[in-house]
Specification:
- The chain is α/β, with parallel strands linked by helices and 342 residues long.
- It has a domain at 4-185 and 236-270 and 306-321: NAD(P)-binding Rossmann-like Domain (Rossmann fold).
- 41% of the residues lie in helices and 17% in strands.
- The protein is built from eleven helices and 13 strands.
- The strands form four sheets. It has a seven-stranded parallel beta sheet, with helices on both faces. A two-stranded parallel ribbon has the order 7-10. A two-stranded parallel sheet has the order 8-13.
- Helix 1 links the parallel strand 1 and strand 2.
- Helix 5 runs parallel beside helix 6 and helix 9 (275-286) packs across helix 11 (324-341).
- The longest helix has 22 residues, at 96-117.
- The radius of gyration is 19 Å and the shape is globular.
- The protein binds UDP-4-deoxy-4-formamido-beta-L-arabinopyranose (WQD).
């Protein structure tokens, strides 16, 4: 009998890549998604890649009734991987209430349903944003969580605390929070990737859209930081590597190999890359000279962060396999594929 995993936000960027990896590892996948930032057609592409079609229920996780009824019809779920959330840092500053309500009510409804339906395993999509600007680099899981610099980041911090306290108050619930660094790239099939909605906030979609001619130029937000070339440093990991970590995390819980009821893991390469180095990587793999200019710093940006991934390496038996160039290449192939299909 296949283990059935509920993936919330499973038609989204990281959710769809994780669904592909789960199916590849023999799991059955059920998706709940409100399609706020994605589209149902992603399920067709997941089926094209894997030959298996995950179920898709389209509703909002803030609807407690709907979620309760859903679990009545799906009483064979052995674990939940929770991606569904609003995730645009900039937007969250202008719409704090929408972010708190959506991200936290969804989470609490899910945890409530888990308790009632006795679903014991929960994997949470968290973010390195909880660390703010770490004092010490690379940053490990025991580093101080800093006051959030955006409502989005705060929903991740509060979300982790809600999970920790709910697990602590329960006998049989187990959870893992995965703190992502910067996911980039797309599935090698170029059938799934980050769906572009409006002007991208993130670096890599802005690079590929500029290269494709959809944006006039890329602005590099600052080159006066205390870094090798003055531009900000981040830890960019391939989204497929990130997806694989979710499979190992949910399997750890299913096999009861977790060493505590609640665990936290950093998911990164362990290597810092500057914005200018990321641009060089893109130019190398695409053969395109990117049109960019140095602009002023972006409000809210931290200077430099990269992961100490040794806990995930050791405990999850997971580490990133793709290079920056390989990730960039898949990002570029995806950009070209979606533009051709439009
Ligand atoms: C990366 C670097 C920018 C755009 C955010 C969230 C994080 C996660 C990933 C959701 C920075 C620079 C960017 C541009 C630029 N999101 N940049 N020109 O800000 O590190 O992380 O997205 O989970 O939680 O905080 O990612 O891709 O926006 O920026 O120079 O047009 O690229 O200054 O140094 P960020 P990013």
């Amino acid at each position: 009998m296949k283990n059935k995993i509920l993936v919330t936000g499973g038609t989204g960027y990281i959710g769809s890549h994780t669904t592909v990896e789960l199916i590849g590892e023999g799991f059955e996948v059920a998706i709940i998604d409100n399609l706020y930032n994605s589209e149902a057609g992603v399920v067709d592409r997941i089926e094209l890649i894997t030959g298996v079609r995950p179920s898709l229920a389209v509703f909002d996780l803030t609807d407690h009734e709907k979620l309760y009824d859903y679990f009545a019809d799906h009483n064979d779920i052995s674990g939940i991987i929770h991606f569904a959330a609003y995730k645009a840092v900039g937007e969250s500053v202008h719409k704090p209430l929408e972010y708190y309500r959506n991200n936290l009510v969804s989470l609490m409804n899910l945890l409530d349903a888990m308790r009632t339906r006795e679903i014991p395993n929960f994997v949470f999509s968290s973010s390195c944003t909880v660390y703010g600007q770490p004092e010490k680099l690379p940053v490990a899981e025991d580093a101080a969580v800093k006051p959030a610099t955006s409502p989005y980041g705060n929903t991740k911090q509060i979300g982790e605390e809600i999970i920790r306290d709910t697990i602590g108050a329960s006998e049989n619930l187990n959870a893992i929070s995965l703190r992502y660094f910067n996911p980039i790239g797309a599935h090698p099939s170029a059938l799934i990737g980050e769906l572009p909605r409006g002007v991208p906030e993130n670096l890599v979609p802005f690079i590929t859209q500029t290269a494709y001619g959809l944006r006039k130029e890329l602005k590099v937000f600052g080159n006066d930081y205390d870094t090798p070339d003055g531009s900000c440093v981040r830890d960019y990991l391939h989204v497929v590597d990130l997806a694989k970590a979710h499979v190992t995390a949910v399997r750890r819980l299913l096999e009861k190999k977790n060493k505590a009821a609640y665990e936290v893991f950093n998911l990164g390469t362990g290597k810092g890359v500057t914005v200018l180095e990321a641009i060089e990587s893109f130019e190398r793999v695409s053969g395109i000279s990117l049109n960019y200019k140095i602009a002023g710093r972006r409000e809210g940006d931290i200077e430099k962060i990269w992961a100490d991934p040794s806990l995930a390496n050791r405990e999850l038996g997971w580490k990133t396999e793709s290079s920056l160039d390989e990730a960039m290449r898949t990002a570029w192939e995806w950009e070209k594929a979606i533009r051709k299909s439009q």
